[in-house]
Design a protein that fits this description.
alpha/beta, 7 strands, single chain, globular, about 15% strand, seven-stranded parallel beta sheet
Length: about 240
C-alpha cells in the first residue's frame, strides 16, 4: 500500500469509553483513521457502531499482551502513515482504593503493567513508524502523579513513573514530540470507581477536554507535561 493519498493514522488505547471514545470521535471527524482498542469486546463494538466510520479499526484486546500490541501497530502501519499514539488505557486498581500500607502486591503489579509497562512497550513497537512519519506521542497522566492524595498511591505513582518515562523519552528521541497530558477530573466510569457512591456530576465531560489535545496536535509545542486547563486558558506555546 502507498500512503501518499491515505489518511493519517492514530492508535488510541482505551477507545470504547470516556476520554478515549471522545478523542476517537474527534479524530475521525478530522479525517484521521483510528486504530482503537478496549478490553471489553461489547463496549468496543457498541462504540464502533455508534461512531459508524469505515476509518475506525476496532481491535479488542488488552494492551498488556504483546500479541495485541503487535496487532495494533501492524493494523496502523497497514492503514496508512502512523502519526499519533495515544496511551489512554489505564487501570485504577481496587475500588475503593487501598492505602499503600494495605496495597496488595498483585494489584499494584497489575496497575503498573497497564499504566507504565504497556505504554512503553507500545511506544517501542510504534516508534519506528512514528519517527518516519513525523508523528507524536500523547501519554495520559493525572494530577495524582504530582499530588499526594491519600488512597491514590498505586495509580498516582504509576502515572508519576509514566511522566518521567515521557520526559526521558523526549530527551532521547527529539524527533518525536512526547506529551504527558493531564486531562483533569472527568465524568468517566474510572473516575466514578475512584469515588464509589459519590456524585461526580460536577466533573467535566470528556468531550470538553478533547480540544486541549487537538491543540497539542495542531501546535506541536515543546515536549513536556501539559494540563488541559492550562492549554484551554493560554494555548500551547511552541
Amino acid at each position: 500500500m502507498t500512503h501518499s493519498d491515505t489518511h493519517p493514522v492514530a492508535i488510541v488505547t482505551g477507545a470504547s469509553r470516556g476520554f478515549g471514545k471522545a478523542l476517537t470521535a474527534a479524530l475521525l471527524d478530522r479525517g484521521w483513521t483510528v486504530v482503537g482498542d478496549a478490553r471489553r469486546d461489547t463496549d468496543l463494538e457498541t462504540t464502533a457502531a455508534e461512531l459508524n466510520s469505515a476509518r475506525l479499526i476496532a481491535l479488542p484486546g488488552d494492551v498488556t499482551q504483546a500479541s495485541h500490541r503487535d496487532a495494533l501497530v501492524a493494523a496502523a502501519v497497514d492503514a496508512g502513515p502512523l502519526r499519533l499514539l495515544v496511551n489512554n488505557a489505564s487501570r485504577l486498581g481496587p475500588s475503593p482504593q487501598p492505602l499503600l500500607a494495605d496495597y496488595p502486591a498483585s494489584e499494584l503489579s497489575a496497575v503498573y503493567q497497564t499504566n507504565l509497562f504497556a505504554p512503553l512497550a507500545l511506544i517501542q513497537a510504534a516508534l519506528p513508524a512514528l519517527t518516519q512519519n513525523g508523528g507524536l506521542i500523547v501519554n495520559l497522566t493525572s494530577d495524582a502523579a504530582v499530588e499526594p492524595y491519600p488512597g491514590w498511591g498505586g495509580y498516582g505513582s504509576s502515572k508519576a513513573a509514566l511522566d518521567q518515562l515521557s520526559a526521558v523519552l523526549a530527551a532521547e528521541v527529539p524527533a518525536v514530540p512526547v506529551y504527558a497530558f493531564d486531562p483533569g477530573d472527568m465524568r468517566t466510569e474510572m473516575h466514578q470507581a475512584a469515588f464509589p457512591g459519590e456524585d461526580i456530576s460536577d466533573r467535566a465531560e470528556p468531550e470538553s477536554v478533547v480540544p486541549a489535545v487537538l491543540r497539542l496536535l495542531d501546535t506541536r509545542p515543546t515536549s513536556g507535561r501539559y494540563r488541559a486547563a492550562d492549554l484551554a486558558l493560554s494555548g500551547a506555546r511552541p
